[in-house]
Structure formats: structure tokens, C-alpha cells
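Need a sequence for this fold. Nothing fancy.
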């Protein structure tokens, strides 16, 4: 569903903005993660696989999505989680971490590995060892991005979205935006807002979307890197929620909307532009984020 939002910053510049509520596909799983898993799960079934195995951090939207979608489709799921300290007292970890708790409640089995081991996630030796231990599985890469994931994300845009001049999306691994780029029309420009630092994304996306040049990455709104934030960002997220009733997460969608509004103020979009913003979800992460703020003794809090 596309929801129009009304803000003074927009009417001042005669700009129309709609938010595609992919966050509402599921009550707590990121919409884009379901899109990315859809054809992977079909493929896994065709191959006769009974188990899905994937990788992620302790607050990963992708881990939770794999647990929930896997359960729904009748797969066993295994999550290889970064941080071996989390495995020392699983009960306590699950008590304190709502992402892992919900994944566990959906039947996911965890293996906690050190950061060093985690870095070998694409190493064939590691995959072999895991297969020896767990038996055969369908491997979903970290973040869920592969060709089948991109195919799923090509279904985000529909015919009624042809009216828009700009399509804006958050970028993590680049899978979601690659699907958008491939399905966008000739007259549309896709703008990606990376949630992390690093120049590798440009090349990564180019590799997925060969031949299309209707897109651009806006790289100055990562707030210091993945999971990093500022007080200004938290205030922005709370204010945006108050003004539009739309909740944003601090890792992805909050940074993107902050960037878009900032660019509008700076006249980076022509007057009269019609902008579609993809809300990819990520709202399940807010609870864990607030918990971390509380532990640090901060007064900041994202209002859910
Ligand atoms: C994973 C995620 C993204 C990033 O998607 P990629 O396909 O990895 O670029 C964006 N927003 C949310 C809420 C996510 O969970």
C-alpha cells in the first residue's frame, strides 16, 4: 500500500511523497526479507531440501525473517550467529535479545561463532564442516542477497507506481535496490541510501543490474556506519512518527528518510517531483536498539 505523507518541507517545494508500506507485510518481519526469501524457498523445495542455514548478527532482520518464513514453509532453520559470547548462556541471551528470542520461538537452532570464524562465512571448508555436522541444507547467504532474492524484489514495484519520478530505497547488501532498479521504468530514477560506510556497494550493485544506469547511491547519510547513530537521528525518527504515524527503524529506514528530507530542504529534488519511498521494515529491531541505549545509560529512546 502506498501512503501519502504530508509535511511542511514537502508542500514548501511542491513535492509529493508516498511511502510504500512494505513494513506492513508482516507484523515483525522486514518486508524486503520476505521478498528476498520467496524464490529461494521455492528453489530449496524443488531441490528437496528440508533445512535452511544462514548467517547473521544478533539483531539481524534477516535471521528472524528466515526463522519465520522457514517455519511457515515447513523447513528446519539454522542460524549461524556472530558472537560466541552469546552462546555461553543461551537462556540469558534469549531473555535479553528479542530478535533471537523470536527466531528461537519460531524453531531456529543457533550456532554462535567468534567474529573470526564468522568472517569465513563464504569459505567452502566451513560450509563442508557445517554440512557434515547438520546434514544437507539450503544455504541462504548473509543478508539473503542472491539472484533469486533480486527476482523477489522486482515484485515490489507495481503498475500503479509508474507515476513516480523517484524511487528511494535503503541499501544494506544491495539486493533490494537491485530488484527495484531492474523493474523501474525508463523515466524513473532509483536512489539508494546505504546504511553503512564503504565503496564496495557501487560495484556490487553494478554486478547485479548490468545495463541499467537509472540509479545512484547517496552515500552521506550512514551516520558513521552500520548500526551507528546520532541524537539528531533519534529525534528525527520520533518526530517523523509523530507527524506521519509512520514508524522508522534506526538502522535503515530512519537514515534514508532523514537523508531524503535533508535533500529536499537543499533543493536536490526538482520542484513538483513525485517521490516513492520504500519502507523496507526493520521495526522488530527497535526494541533491541532501545535496550542497548538503556544499558548505556542514555535518555534517548525510539517511541514505538
Ligand atoms: C535488510 C534490510 C535492508 C537492506 O536490504 P538489502 O537488500 O540488503 O540492501 C533495508 N531495510 C531493512 C529494514 C532491512 O531489514
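Here you go.
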Amino acid at each position: 500500500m502506498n501512503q501519502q505523507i504530508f509535511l511542511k518541507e514537502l508542500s514548501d517545494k511542491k513535492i509529493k511523497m508516498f511511502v510504500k508500506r512494505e513494513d506492513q507485510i508482516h507484523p515483525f518481519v522486514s518486508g524486503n526479507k520476505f521478498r528476498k526469501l520467496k524464490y529461494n524457498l521455492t528453489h530449496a523445495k524443488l531441490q528437496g531440501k528440508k533445512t535452511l542455514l544462514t548467517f547473521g548478527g544478533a539483531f539481524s532482520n534477516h535471521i528472524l525473517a528466515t526463522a519465520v518464513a522457514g517455519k511457515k514453509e515447513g523447513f528446519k532453520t539454522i542460524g549461524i550467529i556472530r558472537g560466541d559470547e552469546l552462546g555461553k548462556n543461551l537462556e540469558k541471551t534469549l531473555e535479553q535479545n528479542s530478535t533471537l528470542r523470536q527466531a528461537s520461538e519460531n524453531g531456529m537452532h543457533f550456532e554462535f561463532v567468534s567474529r573470526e570464524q564468522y568472517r569465513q562465512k563464504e569459505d567452502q571448508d566451513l560450509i563442508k564442516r557445517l554440512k557434515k555436522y547438520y546434514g544437507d541444507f539450503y544455504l541462504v547467504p548473509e543478508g539473503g542477497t542472491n539472484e533469486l532474492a533480486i527476482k523477489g524484489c522486482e515484485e515490489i514495484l507495481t503498475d500503479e507506481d509508474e507515476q513516480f519520478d523517484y524511487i528511494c530505497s535503503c541499501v544494506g547488501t544491495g539486493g533490494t535496490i537491485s530488484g527495484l532498479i531492474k523493474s523501474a521504468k525508463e523515466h524513473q530514477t532509483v536512489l539508494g541510501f546505504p546504511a553503512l560506510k564503504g565503496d564496495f556497494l557501487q560495484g556490487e550493485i553494478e554486478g547485479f543490474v548490468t545495463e541499467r544506469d537509472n540509479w545512484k547511491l547517496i552515500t552521506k547519510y550512514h551516520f558513521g556506519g552500520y548500526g551507528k547513530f546520532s541524537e539528531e537521528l533519534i529525534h528525527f525518527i520520533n518526530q517523523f512518527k509523530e507527524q506521519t504515524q509512520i514508524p522508522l527503524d534506526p538502522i535503515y529506514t530512519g537514515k534514508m528518510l532523514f537523508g531524503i528530507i535533508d535533500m529536499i530542504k537543499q533543493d536536490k529534488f526538482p520542484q513538483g517531483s513525485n517521490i516513492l519511498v520504500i519502507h523496507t521494515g526493520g521495526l522488530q529491531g527497535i526494541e533491541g536498539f532501545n535496550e542497548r541505549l538503556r544499558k548505556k545509560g542514555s535518555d534517548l529512546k525510539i517511541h514505538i
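For context: The chain is about 40% helix and 15% strand.
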